[in-house]
């Protein structure tokens, strides 16, 4: 219905504006907190809420995994552990699981692969595979449930696809 793409674009534009104008910080959790504030005010709908919940849990995970994150570089291993905690936190607020045709179909494989390999590129590839797997998948949660089954065979879930594209860009940066 176009709503997902509009929300993702608003969020991305707002984060880009923050990055270009924000005062730098070496503390990953503090910077993530700034991104969370932008996401909470710029992204509408369920996906905005899901991103906000996940990112808040990710920031909490970073603080618990690396309490002195402002004083040293946060390793991929710490990010992976924090992301696993965040996924568990997200699971308390949504029943979405892989196979439901939601952004979780890209998020969970990304986190699992990152935790297993500490390799951001491999994790992004896993997210893409998860997104691609939603093609033809019957939706059991999210807006796609109400839109109908037309086109599901050729098109991945919009939320999973958008997240997969973001994670691919992050891995290539």
UniProtKB/TrEMBL annotation:
Protein origin, superkingdom: Eukaryota
Pfam families in alphabetical order: Dak2
Alphabetical UniProt keywords: ATP-binding, Kinase, Nucleotide-binding, Transferase
Domain DhaL: 1-172
Catalyzed chemical reaction(s): D-glyceraldehyde + ATP = D-glyceraldehyde 3-phosphate + ADP + H(+); dihydroxyacetone + ATP = dihydroxyacetone phosphate + ADP + H(+)
Annotated protein name in UniProt: Dihydroxyacetone kinase
One cellular component term from this protein's GO annotations in UniProt: cytosol
GO biological process: glycerol catabolic process
Organism the protein comes from: Aureobasidium melanogenum
